[in-house]
From TrEMBL:
Signal peptide (UniProt feature, chain positions): 1-22
Protein name, UniProt field: Bacterial surface antigen (D15) domain-containing protein
Keywords carried by this UniProt record: Membrane, Signal
UniProt-annotated location(s): Membrane
Pfam families tied to this protein: Omp85
Origin: domain of life: Bacteria
Keyword Signal belongs to the record: yes
Residues annotated as domain Bacterial surface antigen (D15): 218-451
Species of the source: Alistipes inops
Membrane is among the record's keywords: yes
Main location: membrane
């Protein structure tokens, strides 16, 4: 089952599962640790009754960006998180947050990032804004549609790489409708510059990107990238007790986002939809939380260029890189960008066990572990006819056909692993996670040292 029918089926399943799980597992406030039944405490009372610590004023957290990702390599740089808590009455929720990051990864990418978030800058509205420049000379490119695109272990890293530089500027507003239901609207500007990898040691070697261009799977008018403005609007339902580190509640959103062809004028205009549902169930109050996330996104009208298909549509990025599916922000342990299609669905589940608390440098800290399971699948293929045409063309050399099209059926991509989190003031989350895919067509393992929970 593929195409629009598969996408509709997946969306129905997501909504049905989400409603049943939310209805069947949310308990009265005394049992879950959240007040108002399924809902969380009011926005001005986010801490548990037994908590007495209140952070006030400014909190500056300069951090050397010394981390590691199997996808990107070692990270070298600096991060500054600045929080304003005011009189502490909203703690652990901050009033204003500013993040700045500049870093370089040893596998050829970089991050230059500025982010701001507040519910207090504009009365009654939440405003988020970010500006990012993300150069990458070795951007992972494994083709389209998951398992129909072969992963050949005898190919080097340069074969599965493209050069991509992304400039991304985003701004969003969220406001209330009724109770925990709200609206969201925003705009973003994207400029992609794409081409074959420029790493010198792979000069002259044929890459998968070269083959996709040669056989018409990537079109000439999109091969170098492009610029577009994306507009989005949707609804949000949020009852979490604390956004960076929830211990109860749920979050759901439905977004429509589209791009009119007003800059490049190459005929690429599209409308996409994205659905996500996240649920946080306290099993042992203050100690153990079961968290899961269900997501789907895909094109519902128009035609999108190849370079936007892996972009994760969300109002609040947990990680700066927004490429899915595969890797640190979607399917941990699976190859970065391994699963790309015109429609994609994925799920994540984990147990978050709070091990112990301590005070250090005048801040509140605790350590948590999170065993996890991730799953993703292409629900609607992208340019499947072009790929099949090459795979079935006897005039194309066998080695090229085997590199472009496997003829295999798409099935779920799955992985599992374990993480450790160090949390400061229930806002800053330092993370280490290690995942292993169930199928070696998705790689061997992934190790990620970064920030924030996955969801």
């Amino acid at each position: 089952m593929t195409g629009k029918r598969a996408d509709k089926t997946v969306v129905k399943l997501l909504f049905t599962t989400a409603i049943l799980l939310a209805a069947g597992t949310c308990c009265p406030g005394a049992e879950t640790g959240c007040s108002d039944g399924m809902a969380t405490p009011s926005r001005s009372a986010l801490t548990r009754p037994e908590d007495t610590y209140r952070k006030t004023g400014f909190s500056f957290t300069p951090i050397p960006a010394l981390s590691y990702s199997s996808d990107l390599g070692f990270q070298l740089g600096a991060i500054l998180d600045a929080y304003w808590f005011g009189d502490g009455s909203t703690y652990p929720k901050y009033r204003h947050k500013l993040t700045a990051e500049a870093c370089y990864y040893t596998k050829g990418s970089g991050i230059y990032y500025l982010f701001y978030d507040s519910e207090y800058l504009i009365r009654g509205l939440r405003f988020t804004a970010s500006a990012s420049y993300l150069p990458n000379t070795m951007m992972a490119f494994y083709g389209f549609n998951g398992y129909p695109a072969p992963f050949l272990r005898d190919k080097n890293a340069g074969f599965y790489a493209v050069d991509r530089n992304l400039l991304r500027i985003m701004g969003d507003l969220q406001g209330p409708i009724a109770g925990h239901l709200g609206w969201a609207a925003g705009a973003a500007f994207f400029h992609y510059a794409t081409g074959r990898t420029r790493v010198e040691k792979y000069a002259g070697e044929t890459t998968l990107y070269d083959l996709y261009r040669r056989y018409g799977i990537i079109y000439d008018d999109e091969s170098g990238g492009g610029s577009h403005i994306e507009l989005r609007a949707g609804v949000v339902y949020d009852t979490r007790d604390n956004e960076p580190d929830p211990s109860c509640g749920l979050y759901a959103d439905l977004l429509l986002y589209g791009s009119p062809d007003i800059i490049d004028r190459r005929g690429y205009h599209y409308l996409k939809a994205a659905v996500s549902f996240r649920h946080y169930l306290p099993l042992i109050r203050g100690k153990l939380v079961f968290a899961y996330r269900l997501c789907w996104q895909g094109t519902v009208a128009g035609r999108a260029p190849f370079y936007v298909q892996q972009n994760y549509a969300t109002l609040f990025l947990k990680q700066i890189n927004s490429d899915i599916l595969g890797g640190a922000i979607s399917l941990r342990g699976i190859l970065y960008n391994r699963v790309v299609g015109d429609g994609m669905a994925w799920a994540n589940a984990e147990l978050r066990l709070r091990l112990f608390d301590f005070r250090l440098f005048g801040q509140e800290w605790y350590i948590t572990t999170n065993p996890f399971f991730d799953l993703g699948i292409v629900t609607r293929p992208f340019r499947a006819e072009e790929l099949q045409a090459v795979g079935n063309d006897a005039s194309v050399p066998d080695d090229i056909r085997k590199a472009i099209y496997s003829g295999e059926r798409e099935t779920p991509h799955m992985s599992a692993g374990l993480g450790i989190k160090i949390v400061m003031n229930r806002n800053l989350v330092l993370s280490v996670e290690y995942g292993i895919p169930f199928d070696r067509r998705d790689g061997t393992n992934g190790l990620y040292l970064n920030m924030n929970y996955l969801f």
